[in-house]
Write a structure and sequence with these properties.
The complex is a heterodimer of chains A (87) and B (362). Chain A contains one helix and five strands. Chain A is α+β, with helices and mostly antiparallel strands and 87 residues long. Chain A has two domains: 56 residues, SH3 type barrels; 29 residues. In chain A, strand 4 and strand 5 form a beta hairpin. The N and C termini of chain A lie far apart (47 Å). The mean pLDDT of chain A is 91. With 362 residues, chain B is α/β, with parallel strands linked by helices. Helices cover 39% and strands 19% of the residues of chain B. Chain B contains 16 helices and eleven strands. Chain B is globular. Chain B starts with 9 loop residues before the first helix and ends in a 5-residue tail after the last helix. Chains A and B meet through strand 4, strand 5 and helix 1 of A and helix 1, helix 7, helix 8, helix 10 and helix 12 of B.
Chain lengths: 87, 362
């Protein structure tokens, strides 16, 4: 139930009194309500759950997390390879 | 960035798994709260790749599984009425009530429709002014902003034929219930990333402090999950019990303020009965009195139901992390996704469904 899928906002418009948008999920386009992300603009990435944008994705945080994990991962993969070479 | 493929990179996941292996020195029991995480763990076989010291227990974060039998039975009575169009998220259709499910109501002529969003139910209500449209408003904090918005929309359009059958549940009271149980084995939590997207994680430090458990806000991709586990293991090994965020690209400490404002406008806290677990104080949301005209339980008063659970099903123990699905005598025999005895075998987030689907025997 609580799955939310990241997608890119490609269009923003109003329907009645609600801010709505078209979201591109890797090629599949669906409509979603953007009422909870008033700051959203076209080109932003957002996570969508039951037709509602829950938040905008923070690219800087995403890059920083990946950089940290890559450092940890590289170190461990190197260690594993070294141990294998030695044995 | 695509925000998906980067988090499924096998080499990266392997490297983090190696770090977990290098860090861990003793057995630890970690609970992932959210059923979406349970399924990701099974789907990618992460439980098989983790060091044997880590036992993952699966939490109650499956709204379909914990919606009370009484409410399911009420839904079945309401959905059977000839004047009603009953709308629901698809997951609810096969959840067994006492003697049938929504699919069988539909087969008997009931107008039961699956909607993707509660706003679709509003559209159906507008298009069918001569019918009563009822939406089964289940879900955790993640789903509450959408369900609450449908009530606000119905109110602003003056819709007299829209109501919601509310079964909202909240994560923090469930964590209290699990941690204060005498049977509790959980030593660390992976908090549900999308619940925290809405609510933030400012409520969690008090829980971490009170029960001395680390809590790590965790996402749903394989890399997110191993990162959450690594951070929890680091804390456990160092004797720390803090709240950390392993999902900062989506989750902030304060959460989504506009969404919280709408939730607080429409809902208030109430005691809630969880299927298989029992009543947990202040663990639910129900409609505030100013929106009571949209309450399906008031609009369709029902007294004739007699809820009765399957005598074999152990879903309640599974939801509390006390038993594993394969410990149930009915698992995979009497109880399969097509003929479920309990809700945990139905939902795309239920632990039994995950074990069945990915062939886990132990």
């Amino acid at each position: 139930m609580c799955l939310a899928v990241p997608g890119k906002i490609i269009e923003i418009y109003e329907t009645g009194d609600l801010k709505m948008g078209k979201i591109d999920f890797g090629g599949a386009i669906r409509e979603a309500c953007l009422a909870y992300v008033p700051e959203a603009k076209v080109g932003d990435y957002t996570v969508i759950h039951v037709g509602f944008a829950l938040n905008l994705l923070d690219e800087d945080e995403a890059q920083e997390t990946l950089r940290l994990l890559r450092d940890i991962s590289d170190l461990n993969n190197e260690l594993t390879n070294t141990l294998q070479d030695e044995s | 960035m695509k925000y998906i493929s980067e988090y499924r990179e096998a080499e990266l996941v392997k490297g983090i798994l190696a770090e977990i292996k290098r860090t861990i020195s003793q057995p630890w029991v970690i609970m992932e709260i959210c059923g979406g995480q349970t399924h990701a763990i099974m789907r990618y076989g992460l439980d098989q790749l983790l060091p044997p010291e880590i036992e993952l227990v699966h939490g109650p974060g499956c709204p379909v599984c914990v919606t009370s039998l009484e409410l399911i039975d009420k839904a079945l009575v309401i959905a059977s009425r000839p004047d009603v169009i009953f709308t629901s998220y698809g997951d609810m259709l096969r959840v067994p009530g006492t003697d049938r499910d929504l699919v069988s109501v539909r087969a008997s002529g009931g107008d039961v429709r699956v909607v993707y969003s509660p706003l679709d139910a509003i559209t159906i209500a507008k298009q069918n002014p001569d019918k009563q449209v009822v939406f089964f408003a289940i879900g955790f904090e993640t789903t509450a902003p959408a369900n609450a918005m449908s009530v606000l929309q119905a109110s602003s359009f003056g819709l007299k034929n829209y109501s919601v059958l509310v079964s909202h549940v909240r994560v923090p009271p469930a964590m209290h219930a699990i941690l204060s149980s005498t049977y509790n084995r959980v030593q660390g939590f992976l908090a549900a990333g999308h619940v925290c997207t809405v609510m933030g994680y400012w409520e969690y430090p008090a829980i971490a402090e009170q029960y001395r458990v680390p809590i790590v806000v965790t996402g749903f991709e394989p890399l997110d999950i191993v990162q959450g586990i690594l951070m929890a293991v680091h804390q456990l090994e160092q004797g720390r019990h803090q709240v950390e965020n392993a999902y900062p690209r989506v989750v902030t400490l304060e959460g989504n303020r506009p969404a919280q404002a709408v939730i607080n406008q429409v809902f208030m806290e109430c005691d809630r009965k969880w299927r298989g677990i029992g009543t947990i104080p202040a663990s639910g949301w129900c409609l505030k009195s100013e929106f009571s005209e949209f309450d399906a339980e008031t609009r369709f008063p029902i007294s004739e139901i007699k809820p009765e659970e399957s005598p074999v099903c152990i879903a309640g123990l599974i939801l509390q992390g006390l038993k594993k699905p394969f410990e149930c005598t009915a698992f995979g025999t009497q109880c399969i996704p097509e003929h479920p005895l309990g809700a945990t075998m139905v939902s795309s987030e239920g632990a039994c469904a995950a074990y069945y689907r990915y062939g886990l025997k132990k």
